[in-house]
Automatic annotation (TrEMBL):
The active site is at 53. It comes from Candidatus Methanocrinis alkalitolerans. Its main location: cytoplasm. This is Protein-L-isoaspartate O-methyltransferase. One of its GO terms (molecular function) is protein-L-isoaspartate (D-aspartate) O-methyltransferase activity. The keyword Cell membrane does not apply. Signal peptide: none annotated. It is an enzyme of class 2 (transferase). Catalyzes the methyl esterification of L-isoaspartyl residues in peptides and proteins that result from spontaneous decomposition of normal L-aspartyl and L-asparaginyl residues. It plays a role in the repair and/or degradation of damaged proteins. Keywords: Cytoplasm, Methyltransferase, S-adenosyl-L-methionine, Transferase. Pfam families: PCMT.
Length: 207
């Protein structure tokens, strides 16, 4: 199933993203009872009402962000840690991923999974992801794996000039939006409809 997923994605995203995904054992990032489904191209439940995104969505978001080696990345919505692990492969040993999760049990789960997978350049912290992590800003890239009613201002402000943010936006209809910070203002690109769990917090949906 892993090879089938990679073949399906080939040509739609960069080979570099596919190579990074191929190095991350996705089965380590899902609950033991459903590891046989780890490479199916669909979201899977990871507990606490949350999901691990489908492989194609992880690939698309990483591809759109154009993550380079040595970058500092903020990951909002750690979940099981899989998306952070793929981005850690993309930034390489000289880069770092700071990942924030609001649910304690998932933050613990993600840390265990990342350790099991041998990922050393991801820091998982617990908190309100809609506020970002200003203590480690500015970031080259920001990935948000939950939909917001609008793009949170703190996340935009924590981008470097030339930095990029990808985030689902909307409630009934969600759209994947890429934000690039320019010297003056921001530029937006729209990348089609998506379905994500809501981003809860001060700059997201009300809890």
């Amino acid at each position: 199933m892993k090879d089938e997923t990679m073949r399906m994605l080939r040509g739609s995203v960069s080979d570099r993203v596919l190579a990074a995904m191929g190095r991350v054992p996705r089965e380590l990032f899902v609950p033991r009872g459903i590891r046989g489904s780890a490479y199916e191209d669909r979201p899977l439940p990871i507990g606490e009402g949350q999901t691990i995104s489908a492989p194609h969505m992880v690939a698309i978001m990483c591809d759109v962000l154009d993550i380079g080696e040595g970058m500092r990345v903020l990951d909002v919505g750690t979940g099981s840690g899989y998306h952070a692990a793929v981005m850690a492969e993309l930034v390489g040993p000289e880069g770092h991923v700071y990942s924030i999760e609001r649910i304690t049990q998932l933050a613990v789960f993600a840390k265990e999974n990342l350790t099991a997978a041998g990922v050393k350049n991801v820091t998982v912290l617990e908190g309100d992801g809609s506020r970002g992590l200003p203590e480690y800003a500015p970031y080259d890239r920001i990935n948000v794996a939950a939909t917001a009613p609008k793009i949170p201002e703190p996340l935009k402000e924590q981008l470097k000039v030339g930095g990029k943010l990808v985030i689902p936006v909307g409630s009934c209809y969600q759209e994947l939006v890429l934000v690039e910070r320019m010297k003056e203002g921001y530029e937006l690109e729209h990348h089609g409809g998506v379905v994500f769990v809501p981003l809860l917090g001060d700059y997201g949906f009300e809890m």
